[in-house]
Write a structure and sequence with these properties.
heterotrimer, A alpha/beta, B mainly alpha, C alpha/beta, B: mainly alpha, C: alpha/beta, five-stranded parallel beta sheet, 18 helices
Chain lengths: ~280, ~180, ~675
């Protein structure tokens, strides 16, 4: 299976362990990723906070590239990117005047027809049965709190792959691989998102609640599918402990990390050894 | 750059793709907002001010920039009012009209530095962003701890191969700049 | 030679402002066949009608045209005017020069010209009108009441007390509806069953009421005054004539852990059971899915214990037929099913409230059962999770209601009062408990209603918070309710022991199917459509079918009872006539030219066309023909349009009339 691939700035920046993880894991499952040529930043939080037109134009440029390069589907492992791409695509698909205007701005025709998939959806597309068949290790030692973060399942009008209030797609997959995900209450609560540098206290406060609730419900690790969440919960875990006097010690895995481990890939290949909080 | 006219309800609705008249002030947005306890004004109150045409007041709230854009408000709104969009619009207008709450300067400086970075490079060059942001924040607030904070993080990131001194740039940077110009940014 | 009178109404300024009424009255008088043209300010008024009457007599008119408002307004009025003067009421036509002319056009010259055209068309039509007589149909003076809740009970008793027979069909094993399951009712805090059960017994014992329980309406044929109803009596597996209600069977039944529908899942019951102690009929029913004998072929203890030999394991559904003249629909409501519903329901659930995940998050009817003296915990309020008495209870308003995003845009009307009532019942049972209510608005418009809500706050200490709840989670056995108080301007989180969701009320399940059988319309939510929201709230557009209670729209008990008596009143009006009349503007088939292709029969939406045979005196078949049933035909004209041989036509709206009207404009 070949699919378009939009890494986004984080996966080529300080979350390059996520890219290693995604590439290694999907390659082992026979999925080849065709990276979008000369993709540009989706605009992230900054664009939609400061300039709504730019917030549509930047992701639209990437959608136009995907259409030009004949990629009907594209994996965007960062939910911020996938949400911006989907939002732009949806607005473009509904408004002919906007399509005309944006096509001019991005210097390529764009229609918004590309289907954007997140990490969970690509695993669903491959199929749990196939993944289970290819698995060589059981994940029974893992009792993860599956953390979806605030953007993965929103907005519900556009995203219908899981319930936006009580999502369970990660749990379903991990259970197939032997893991024992816990039931907990902060699945879709925000970790502080892009405030990591701009206003760290917000992240430390919100992410603390997430770590605390996960631990309180018996989790021995966290699973995420978002690079911002991973950084906020992992890289900042020490700072959270310092600020709140807590002693959190939870490894924060990417979903592709755990799937990769089940498939028999090693920690280096998956980039797990490059996390801040590692398994002792 | 200060705009000559005061923003109107129509301005907000256009930028936000929202219909504020639909809001019946039930407060579910405020109830679910993770930052509500820290905000000076609640999300539903911001929408109320827009309904009353008091965009001048709404733009100046610190809440506008305390928002983390988690979309919980819009997702749960029983009237499908795009509350997150209204906050976006207020953010944009607060900068265009130089009306943002002074205490939120740090966040605004960061987001602007982020966009500048994209304009120059097409993709985010993280160290460049951090460097420029910390410098601006330092000179803006005389906030020495901010300058030094995370300094210890750099070697830890280097150790993990996450530190990219330069980072990536797109090939067609001229296109990126033209996109920005066409969006008046 | 025709002698037609044209009467042009000024309608005050409504018509005269944009149409030169004097001019068109004069011009109309010049038209061929028109004997006189008159303009007057208010044609529908007493002097106006007198004027028409005088002209009919003086000018020997054989047809009249009233150029005024819409026929929906006053066609009946002017027909009566004509009839009083001895002119056949179907020789009356109206030209709508108000809604179709003066109200929508502002150029006086153009509007006047159009008004004259409309009058000329009406004249062309009335010249070809035939004198028609209303169709008389006999009326079977028996009524069918569908639904045995408080509304159905009231309607049935009113009709039965007036001396007429009533057939009541109830889907559940007992009548009583939702009211039978309530604890106390607002605003009096009367014990619900205490005030309802005497009425239920009246129904059971009334000589004029024939009660079918565990039954549903299977099909309805016929028309106003002459309905033939087929009722499906579902298998009860108990012969209620033999059964004495002694209770040996349900006391011995080993299948005990079945969730009780009457308790909305808050309690359990045996497979053979009486839904509640005051059930009418007070006889058990077997749940075939829970019965060991019926599912696995074993057990059968109840039959062994039964001294009356009333258990019928071989029972099966039975179809019975009843002839009635009027139908009253009183099918009541169900609660919006929150949580994640299965299947294709366009209503998505409230996943953020945890209903179905957390056992202590319940809905308002479930709460009623928990506090009800005959409920699963004997009236002691205990948490479903651990049986503890909750010390903090949060009541959430508008769950499902007033929620465009989730699909129900309307207000359910009763929940504000129900919540206030619940806080009071709670306080009366748990003296050291604290109730919190999250609300958007308080709707308490009835008599003593607002005082009732204030009592809950001022005397019984309920805390009311204006704002909605965003999310409910459970931590360490307590429910964390994240809401907001918009009046104080603060988010508000409450750790509660129990949460009660005031879910929206919706029409009963599968009411749309029933409505289709009765040809009654319903809105997007399934509420049955009344003929006119203000002036005809209990009639439907299906002649002879009436509605009352929540099936027509959300309402409380006093309103349901009032509507039930209103519906009964309408039925009694029907029954007070020897026979009923129907408008004669219906289809007619020329049986000589009819080719018996029956395209009309297939096209007719009212199943009003029969296949008939014409035989000679010897009984030999001459030909087949389509024949219109004058009781069912609604005069829609579909058959006229499809008939290939032009044999079908519409009395009062013939093809010849329509062509004549069109030729006027040429």
């Amino acid at each position: 299976m070949e699919i378009g691939y939009y890494p986004g700035c984080a996966l080529h920046g300080s979350s390059n362990d996520y890219e290693s993880s995604v590439r290694a894991c999907l390659s082992a499952l026979g999925v080849s990723l065709r990276e979008l040529d000369d993709w540009i930043c989706c605009g992230a939080t900054a664009a939609h906070c400061l300039n709504q037109k730019l917030a549509v134009a930047l992701p639209a440029r990437n959608l136009a590239l995907a259409e030009r390069d004949g990629l009907p589907q594209m994996l965007a492992p960062c939910p911020m990117c996938s949400m911006e791409l989907i939002k732009a695509g949806s607005l473009l698909a509904q408004d002919a005047e906007l399509r005309r205007e944006i096509s001019e701005i991005v210097e390529l025709p764009v229609s918004g027809s590309t289907q954007i998939l997140n990490l969970i959806q690509i695993f669903q597309k491959i199929g749990a049965a196939r993944i289970k068949e290819a698995a060589v290790h059981s994940l029974e030692a893992f009792c993860p709190a599956c953390y979806y973060g605030c953007l993965l399942t929103r907005p519900p009008e556009n995203l219908r792959f899981d319930d936006c209030e009580q999502p369970s797609s990660m749990e379903t997959l991990l259970r197939e691989l032997g893991a024992q995900p816990v039931d907990w209450n902060f699945k879709t609560e925000c970790c502080g998102a892009g405030m990591t540098i701009a206003h760290e206290e917000t992240v430390l406060d919100l992410s603390n609640k997430i770590l605390s609730n996960a631990a309180a419900h018996g989790a021995n690790c966290i699973v995420v599918a978002c690079p911002m969440c991973q950084v906020n919960l992992d890289m900042k875990q020490a700072a959270i402990n310092a600020r709140h006097g807590t002693a959190h010690d939870l490894v924060v895995y990417y979903l592709s990390d755990l799937v990769g481990l089940a498939l028999g890939l090693d920690q280096q290949a998956l980039g797990i050894d490059r996390h801040f909080v590692v398994r002792k | 750059m200060k705009m000559p006219d005061e923003p109107t309800i129509a301005d907000v609705e256009r930028i936000a793709h929202a219909s504020v008249r639909d809001c019946y002030q039930c407060g579910k947005c405020s109830a679910g907002c993770p930052q509500a306890h820290a905000m000076d004004v609640l999300p539903n109150q911001l929408v109320r001010w827009v309904q009353l045409g008091r965009i001048d007041k709404a733009m100046r709230a610190a809440a506008v920039w305390q928002c983390v854009s988690c979309m919980t408000c819009s997702t749960r709104c029983p009237k499908s009012v795009n509350c997150a969009g209204v906050l976006d619009a207020l953010r944009q207008l607060s900068v265009e009209h130089d009306a943002a709450a002074p205490g939120q300067r740090r966040t605004i400086v960061f987001q602007q530095a982020f966009l500048d970075n994209i304009r120059r490079n097409g993709r985010l060059r993280e160290m460049e962003l951090v460097g420029i942001f910390k410098t601006k924040a330092f000179f803006g607030d005389l906030n020495i701890p901010l300058l030094m904070k995370d300094a210890l993080l750099a070697p830890q990131m280097m150790k993990r191969g996450k530190f990219h001194l330069f980072g990536e740039r797109v090939r067609d940077r001229g296109l990126v700049q033209r996109i920005f110009e066409r969006c008046h940014c | 030679m025709a002698r037609i009178g044209v009467f042009v109404c000024w309608c005050g300024e409504n018509i005269a402002r944009n149409v030169d009424v004097q001019a068109i009255a004069a011009a109309a008088a010049e038209e061929p066949g028109v004997a006189c043209g008159v303009a007057y300010k208010y044609m529908c008024s007493d002097p106006g009608q007198t004027l028409i009457g005088e002209k009919i007599a003086a000018e020997r008119l054989d047809g009249i045209v009233i150029a005024s408002c819409s026929p929906h307004m006053h066609l009946k009025t002017f027909r009566k005017t004509a009839q009083r003067q001895g002119l056949n009421p179907y020789l009356v036509e109206m030209a709508n020069i108000r809604e179709h002319c003066s109200w929508v056009h502002h150029d006086r010259e153009q509007a006047t010209a159009k008004a004259l055209d409309l009058i000329r068309m009406a004249v062309a039509k009335v010249r070809r009108d035939q004198a028609l007589e209303p169709i008389r149909v006999p009326v079977t003076r028996r009524a069918l009441v569908i639904g045995g809740g408080v509304a159905g009970i009231q309607a049935a008793l009113d009709i039965a007390d007036a001396g007429y027979q009533v057939v009541m069909v109830e889907r559940e094993p007992s009548i009583g509806g939702k009211m039978a399951g309530l604890s106390e009712t607002f605003p009096t805090l009367d014990c619900s069953q205490c005030i309802l059960t005497p009425r239920m017994v009246d129904v059971a014992q009334h000589p004029n009421i024939k009660l079918y329980t565990c039954s549903e309406v299977e099909s309805v044929d016929g028309f106003l005054g002459n309905f033939k109803v087929t009722i499906r009596k579902r298998a009860r597996y108990v012969d209620i004539a033999k059964c004495t209600g002694c209770g040996q069977c349900w006391n011995a039944c080993p299948s005990k852990k079945n969730l009780s529908q009457f308790d909305y899942g808050m309690g359990t019951r045996t497979a053979i059971y009486v839904p509640f102690p005051q059930a009418v009929p007070a006889r058990p029913v077997i749940d075939p899915a829970a019965c060991i004998r019926l599912t696995k072929g074993k057990c059968g203890i109840c039959a062994k214990k039964c001294q009356a030999g009333a258990i019928l394991f071989e029972d099966h559904d039975e179809l019975v037929s009843e002839d009635v003249g009027a139908v009253v629909v009183a099918t009541g409501y169900q609660l919006y099913q929150i949580g994640r519903p299965e299947g294709d329901d366009k209503l998505s659930g409230y996943g953020e409230y945890g209903y179905g995940r957390y056992p202590d998050v319940i809905d308002s009817l479930q709460f009623e059962r928990l506090v009800s003296a005959s409920g699963p915990s004997g009236g002691e309020l205990r948490r479903p999770s651990d049986g503890q008495v909750p010390k903090t209870v949060v009541f959430v308003s508008c769950v499902g209601s007033r929620d465009n995003a989730k699909g129900l845009s309307y207000c359910s009307k009763i929940c504000c009062m129900v919540n206030a009532k619940h806080t009071m019942l709670y306080k009366h049972k748990v003296h050291d408990g604290q109730a919190h209510v999250f609300y958007m608005d308080i709707r308490a418009g009835g008599k003593n209603y607002d005082e009732f809500v204030r009592r809950a706050i001022e005397q019984d200490g309920a805390h009311y918070h204006r704002g909605r709840v965003s999310k409910i989670t459970e931590e360490n056995g307590r429910l964390i309710v994240r809401g907001v108080d918009t009046l104080a301007g603060e988010p508000l989180t409450i750790a509660a022991d129990m949460v009660v969701l005031a879910s929206a009320i919706r029409p009963a399940e599968r009411v749309e199917e029933l409505a289709q059988k009765l040809n009654v319309g319903y809105d997007e939510f399934g509420f049955l459509s009344e003929s006119h929201p203000k002036l005809r709230p209990v009639e439907t557009n299906a002649a002879g079918v009436f509605v009352c209670g929540v099936c027509q729209g959300p309402k409380d008990i006093p309103e349901s009872v009032a509507q039930a008596s209103a519906a009964a009143g309408k039925v009694l009006v029907m029954f007070s006539h020897e026979n009923l009349s129907r408008e004669p503007e219906i289809a007619r088939v020329n049986e000589t030219t009819c080719a018996a292709c029956f395209a009309c029969r297939r096209a007719c939406p009212y199943h009003a066309i029969d296949q008939a045979e014409i035989r000679d005196r010897g009984g030999k078949l001459i030909k087949r023909t389509a024949r219109v049933n004058p009781g069912l035909c609604m005069g829609c004209g579909t058959c006229v349009a499809v008939c290939p041989s032009k044999s079908a036509d519409l009395d009062g709206f013939t093809e010849q009339q329509i062509y004549a009207m069109l030729e006027c404009l040429a």
